[in-house]
Specification:
The complex is a heterodimer.
Chain A: E1 3-8, E2 11-17, H1 20-29, E3 33-36, H2 79-105, H3 116-153, H4 159-162, H5 167-187, E4 202-207, E5 212-213, E6 222-223, E7 228-232, H6 233-241, E8 245-247
Parallel strand pairs in A: 2-3
Antiparallel strand pairs in A: 1-2, 4-7, 4-8, 5-6
Chain B: H1 13-21, H2 24-37, H3 46-68, H4 73-103, H5 105-110, H6 119-139, H7 170-187
Helix pairs in contact in B: 2-3, 2-4, 3-4
Classes of the chains: A alpha+beta, B mainly alpha.
Chain lengths: 250, 188
């Protein structure tokens, strides 16, 4: 614990960094202190270049470390943290069961007894439920990001993102993608193009990566690197979203 | 809808407005705006969508014909623009509905909102829900102790399906986060 003493008037008083552990200690020792406020740091943010996907994820999980929650790309699936939480849940469950057994052995009625064992069991039960909600929220948060990836990047994920998913998430992505495709084929409409309201039917594009010959709805151009073309907007959109082309504006 | 007096051309604008308002494009635009603005999914306009798809198909054939027999390219591109705009409306309408289904699938399958979906949307929702439940079970629920493995109930002793708030509307999201944070202070 970091603290400095300073003279305030005629009395000495402790100046303490404000944190949860310090607060607990001060309460325990029944001290009266002055709390040093945590400084707020303003940061600026530059939007990413065209072609990058930026995703939000909640930076805080289970333990509040006091760090800033940051806007960033999806993290690797944190199986270590996950396994630790599951172990904690099992421990809680064992304690809960042993307390329940203790109540039963003493011959008391489980539903109505309100002794120390009962309240201990309640705390274990509530901790378990709390952990369950956190885990579900973590997995569900990532599921939402994965669903939006299907709309933005199409049926095949780039390697950098695939490394961050665990096996179950990859399976989920494939299944979700298949469900979407089956819906679109029933309607005979591709819903992943035409994402912005159309201004011109044809746009100028410059090719960024070598794509080669492509058969489009009204032409079959050779999309060599750095070549410029006048393509139909709906045809160009899929290439633009993958970062293989860029639109020339102005 | 503005009811106006006669404009300079001598066409009563009230009639013109009401004439325009009944075209399928206008109805589609209205449906699209409603769907975009409403937080919950609205009734699927099956007839309107079917008619719009037929008309778009007809327009596409007409434009192709015009392009081939050398009609004035300005006319062709104007028709093409109109076609593109209508197609965008249709796609966006269906897309917004799909994204709402993706977001609230558990909630929709449990309430009367299910009846607002089209047949294909119901199929999609059912498949998506199955995949989601399978994924959640595999990652989390099967590893938790017995009695805490339900998707919808917090534990077998819960009376309500309160885990469903994870997939309900946004307000519940915020409530859930506050709930977790508060408990973490209690326990530590």
């Amino acid at each position: 614990m970091l603290c400095m003493s300073c003279k305030l008037g005629n009395t000495y008083s402790l100046l303490v960094n404000d944190s949860s552990s310090n607060r607990r200690l001060v309460d325990k020792l029944c001290l009266s202190v002055h709390w040093k406020l945590i400084p707020i740091c303003w940061v600026s943010w530059k939007p990413p270049d065209r072609g990058y996907i930026m995703m939000n994820t909640d930076g805080s999980f289970l333990q509040a470390r006091g760090d800033a929650g940051v806007l960033g790309s999806m993290d690797r699936y944190n199986s270590n943290m996950f396994d630790q939480v599951i172990k904690e849940c099992s421990a809680h469950h064992l304690e809960f069961q042993s307390l329940m057994r203790k109540i039963q052995e003493e011959g008391l009625d489980i539903q109505t007894t309100r002794n120390a064992d009962h309240f201990g069991a309640v705390i274990h039960h509530l901790s378990l439920i709390h952990n369950k909600r956190c885990l579900m929220a973590y997995v569900y948060n990532r599921v939402e990001i994965i669903q939006s990836l299907r709309w933005k990047l199409g049926p095949v994920l780039p390697q950098e993102i695939q490394e961050k998913l665990n096996y179950s998430e990859e399976e989920f992505f494939k299944n979700h993608s298949a469900a979407l495709e089956s819906y679109m084929s029933e309607l005979e409409l591709d819903l992943t193009v035409d994402m912005v309201p159309p201004k011109d039917p044809y746009i100028h594009v410059r090719v960024l990566d070598d794509i080669g010959d492509v058969l489009l709805s009204d032409q079959s151009p050779n999309l060599a690197c750095h070549s410029m073309h006048f393509l139909k907007r709906t045809d160009a959109e899929q290439f633009i979203s993958q970062g293989l082309m860029e639109e020339l504006t102005g | 809808m503005a009811s106006g007096s006669e404009d300079g051309l001598g066409i009563p604008s009230k009639d013109y407005d009401s004439l325009i308002a009944t075209t399928d494009v206008e109805l589609l635009k209205r449906a699209w705006q409603n769907e975009k603005a409403a937080p919950e999914i609205l009734q699927f306009q099956a007839d309107l969508i079917r008619r719009s798809q037929e008309q778009i198909q007809l327009m596409e054939d007409t434009v192709e014909e015009y392009a081939e027999n050398g009609t004035d390219p300005l006319t062709v591109s104007l028709y093409q623009m109109d076609l593109d705009r209508t197609q965008f409306l249709l796609r966006s309408y269906l897309r917004i509905r799909l994204q709402k289904i993706e977001k609230y699938m558990l909630h929709i399958s449990k309430t009367e909102l299910w009846n607002r979906l089209s047949k294909q949307e119901q199929k999609f929702a059912k498949r998506s829900t199955d995949h989601m439940e399978k994924h959640l079970k595999q990652s989390v629920l099967s590893r938790l102790p017995y009695g805490y493995q339900s998707i919808l109930k917090q534990s077998i002793s819960s009376e309500d399906d309160d885990m469903g708030t994870i997939s309900s509307f946004c307000a519940n999201h915020f409530f859930l986060m506050c709930y977790c944070l508060f408990l973490s202070f209690l326990i530590y």
